[in-house]
Specification:
The complex is a heterodimer of chains A (304) and B (296). With 304 residues, chain A is mainly alpha-helical. Chain A is 72% helix and 1% strand. Chain A folds into two domains: 2-47; 73-303, MetI-like (MetI-like fold, Orthogonal Bundle). Chain A is built from twelve helices and two strands; from the N terminus they run H-H-E-E-H-H-H-H-H-H-H-H-H-H. A two-stranded antiparallel sheet of chain A has the order 1-2. In chain A, helix 5 packs across helix 6. Chain B is α/β, with parallel strands linked by helices and 296 residues long. Chain B has helices at residues 2-28, 47-60, 73-82, 96-106, 135-142, 175-183, 201-210, 245-250, 269-279, 281-289; strands at 37-42, 65-69, 87-90, 110-125, 132-134, 166-170, 196-198, 214-219, 227-229, 231-233, 256-264, 293-294. In chain B, strand 1, helix 2 (47-60) and strand 2 form a beta-alpha-beta unit. Classes of the chains: A mainly alpha (304), B alpha/beta (296).
């Protein structure tokens, strides 16, 4: 009888362990590899004399093929934020309301149906959303006074619908995570169900809800195809220092759409190619910041 | 057990080498393919034409496959520089800087063929009362710091009751964009920001047909019944000419341009055969059928 494992078996165990370990850290490696690759492609321009980050962030003139080229992405950045903020303004009340309804007010049967339908909503490909924006939504939005119907509002509605399933399902989880003893205590004190929701559950699930909103925000900022089709892709600044301060019916360009529209056609390694990669770095930084904030909100800022 | 372990490691090696291949593939691959494959890429204006050629050619010579894709003239030339296309379609002449890059990368010059002519048509909605326009007016509408922003500036009442001119332009790598900029926009200026930068010749005409207050430019081959092509005059007081075959060939239409194809130096035999066929009477018939003007 052999009690000791054979040498081969020990080696085999070790091998499997290593493979699994590699799988485990691969995500980290990929994220860093992608960031470094994107940065590497853009670094030539970043450190060259005739380019400044300040210009990229603040100049309103985006004209990468003109001689001399100007790389000012301010309007594109503002376009991205205008769509994202409006989308969140639409999506957050609906998703939080939906999450509260599903977790607290509706019956078990309806709950199952709603959850399945919401998952279906999440499964619609973004190009289909873009198509809806381009062909259906644009007709209604044109009636509101927009020139073409392709606008901040159109993109924001589409993005709101796209981010709702994410915000809703994560918020619902957060609400579900509030211990039942809280609910029992509240009801025991004689409050109504609504009072229980906004006095006990919402404060109790605050962190989870904020994380849900921020993750939805990350999705909205990073979305490409739908916004490219629905926002009209025009270099405008939708913000205004005079009333009404914000033009929701204006066509805008977003960071993602700019990369998608111009990347396929630029000459490899040229200045235009590099500036698009720098925009990629910028986009990466924004989504990273949003996700990082979400993480810190949930887990708290660790004190040393 | 032994075998399983080996398969696993092999699987991993395969995955890693696969990733490496994906990383390198784009740079070297493509043009090396089978000898009967022709990669044809570039101008969006010429896309319909190139596709029609490819389909007809496939009927006559079934052993040669011509893969056509669009994306813009800049794409085609970029593909030529990167060595992934055999023929680049281009609705503008190759830039000197691009020619240098071709030479640096491949040691040969890009060879130019004129495949046909196109009138760059100026489109408005079919209900728009405007009939003709001058190059100067176009420059003021589309150019940076241009003064014309409303239909009333042109002395007409726009259809749909909206006075603001909605400009439809193209993404910046498009040959149509570059040609329009060079011929219409005043020297040294760029486009007025805020135009809708469409991602294809066809998209310009489609949005124009749907939206009354728009003006846009695109190849004449994309005209439909829902849009109107304006007659164009060189300057105020000159006679305006409609975009058609005769006016393109006579040079009266002020924004007619040649449509080019480029190859890397002398093309390979099967590529040359294809180009010769496109320039033959049979090929030039297709040019006419897709709405362009046969090469002079």
């Amino acid at each position: 009888m052999q009690l000791q494992r054979s040498k081969w078996k020990a080696f085999y165990e070790g091998l499997i362990e290593w493979i699994i370990r590699i799988c485990g850290i691969s995500a980290v490696v990929f994220v860093f590899a992608i960031f470094i690759f994107v940065f590497w492609e853009g670094k030539g321009l970043l450190f060259s004399g005739n380019f400044s980050v300040w210009e990229l962030l603040t100049s309103e003139k985006w004209d990468p093929t003109h001689e001399p080229a100007s790389f000012g992405a301010a309007r594109i950045i503002l376009g991205t934020f205008s769509v994202a903020i409006l989308a969140m303004t639409i999506a957050v009340p609906f998703s939080l309301g939906g999450a509260i309804f599903i977790s607290e007010f509706c019956g078990a049967r309806l709950k199952e149906i709603l959850k399945v339908v919401i998952e279906l909503l999440a499964a619609i490909p973004s190009v289909v959303w873009g198509f809806i924006g381009l062909t259906v939504m644009s007709i209604f939005i044109r009636d509101l006074g927009s020139n073409t119907g392709l606008s901040v509002l159109n993109g924001a509605i589409i993005l709101a619908l796209m981010s709702m399933p994410i915000i809703l399902s994560i918020s619902e989880d957060a609400l579900k995570a509030v211990p039942d003893s809280y609910r029992e205590a509240a009801i025991g004190l004689g409050v109504t169900r609504w009072q229980m929701v906004y006095r006990v559950l919402l404060p109790g699930a605050k962190k989870g809800l904020l994380a849900a909103v921020l993750l939805g925000m990350g999705r909205v900022v990073g979305e490409t195809m739908a916004v490219l089709m629905a926002t009209g892709h025009a270099l405008n600044n939708p913000f205004d220092t005079n009333p009404p301060f914000f033009h929701a019916l204006m066509e805008v360009k977003t960071l993602t759409a700019t990369i998608a529209s111009e990347m396929g056609e630029v000459e490899r390694g040229g200045e235009h190619w590099q500036v698009l990669f720098l925009i990629g770095v910028l986009l990466f930084t924004i989504t990273f910041a949003v996700n990082m904030t979400a993480h810190l909100v949930v887990h708290g800022v660790k004190r040393k | 057990m032994t075998r399983l372990g080996i398969i696993k490691t092999n699987g991993l090696t395969a995955l890693v080498s696969g990733l490496l291949l994906v990383g390198c593939g784009k740079r070297d691959g493509g043009s090396e393919g089978q000898s009967s494959n022709i990669q044809n890429k570039g101008s969006d204006t010429m896309l319909q034409l190139a596709q029609a050629w490819s389909e007809l050619y496939a009927k006559e010579f079934p052993d040669v496959r011509v893969a056509v894709s669009g994306g813009g003239s800049g794409t085609g030339i970029a593909g030529l520089i990167n060595g992934v296309v055999d023929i680049a379609n281009c609705s503008r002449a190759i830039k000197p800087s691009e020619m240098e890059k071709v030479k640096a990368a491949h040691g040969v010059e890009a060879k130019q063929y004129i495949m046909g002519l196109d009138c760059l048509a100026v489109y408005v909605h079919k209900d728009n009362p405007l009939e003709e326009i001058t190059l100067d007016q176009l420059g003021q509408i589309f150019g940076e710091d241009g003064t014309i922003t409303k239909w009333s500036d042109l002395g007409i009442e726009a259809p749909g009751g909206k006075d603001e001119i909605v400009r439809l332009s193209r993404q910046s790598n498009s040959g149509t964009y570059v040609y329009f900029k060079e011929t219409v926009i005043p020297e040294g200026k760029s486009f007025k920001p805020g135009s809708l930068d469409m991602h294809g010749s066809k998209e310009v005409v489609e949005l124009c047909a749907k939206t009354p207050a728009t003006i846009g430019y695109s190849g004449m081959g994309y005209a439909t019944d829902d849009v109107k092509m304006l007659r164009v005059a060189k300057k105020e007081g000159d006679k305006a000419f409609a975009p058609n075959n005769d006016n393109a060939l006579s040079g009266d239409y002020p924004i007619a341009r040649p449509l080019f194809m480029y190859t890397l130096g002398e093309p390979k035999e099967h590529v040359k055969a294809y180009l010769d066929w496109c320039l033959s009477p049979a090929g030039q018939k297709v040019v006419n059928a897709t709405g362009y003007v046969p090469a002079p």
